[in-house]
Amino acid sequence: MSALPSEAAFETQTDQATARDASPEPDLRPAITRTAGVELLTPTQLEDRAIIHRGGVSRPEVDAFRELRTRLLAAVEGSFVALVAPVSSGSGGSFVARNLATAMAFDETKSALLVDCDVRHPSQARTMKIDADNGGLVEYLENAEADLSDVIYETGVNGLRLIPAGTTREIGAEYFSSVRMRLLLDSIRSRHPNCYVFLDGPPVRGTPDARILADIADVVILVAGYGRDTAATIAQAAANFDPAKFAGVVFNEGV
């Protein structure tokens, strides 16, 4: 698993999370609280899934994600919904989203929910080796009778759950702008205040999906491929987001 470069940059800007109204969704607390009775992944299994883990020896990539977590917590009051969006395909946005959520779950007082929102090219369930037998985000949003708890999966990481993207779709804008998508996030906010949600977004360049997801997020983190994305393309990508929500840029290397 490749580490973030030591010079990875993350500039924060205070943005207080907006309070949301409670929604009529069922109680999700059993689905997203910390693991009980579930077999946790070993360090070897975690590395095979490109997931950071704590150990007796300081690891640069773990320290980098802990620092990102600390800065986010300092910048946003209370739990939040964070969009992690890569500048372009191959920048490593999914790697950063997965491990930032994992770092949040290191804190035993918190839990994290990772939502794969790249419906064109989903990767989280495959990378984390999760059999999404009940479908994922797409199936939940398409079926008004679907139960959200059915598409929240254990990851083998204590405190971390995943909603996979589900069936591949070419267009995500209609899903992300739907009332049902907002209700999904409102339900989690209202019923589990210590859960931090990380939206693994599609690349900013080429589709409007990341911009639409930013509207329902409290904070936006842009991921640039170290040595891949130019200063001009990074600036163009950042211009798509509300400056009040924009936390900064993570430079990712090799993933």
From TrEMBL:
Gene3D superfamilies: P-loop containing nucleotide triphosphate hydrolases
InterPro entries: Bact_polysacc_biosynth/exp, P-loop_NTPase, Wzc-like_C
Keyword Protein biosynthesis among UniProt keywords: no
Keywords: ATP-binding, Nucleotide-binding
CDD domains: BY-kinase
Coiled coil: none
Region annotated Disordered, chain positions: 1-29
PANTHER family: FERRIC ENTEROBACTIN TRANSPORT PROTEIN FEPE (PTHR32309:SF13), TYROSINE-PROTEIN KINASE (PTHR32309)
Protein known as: Polysaccharide biosynthesis protein
Record organism: Lysobacter arvi
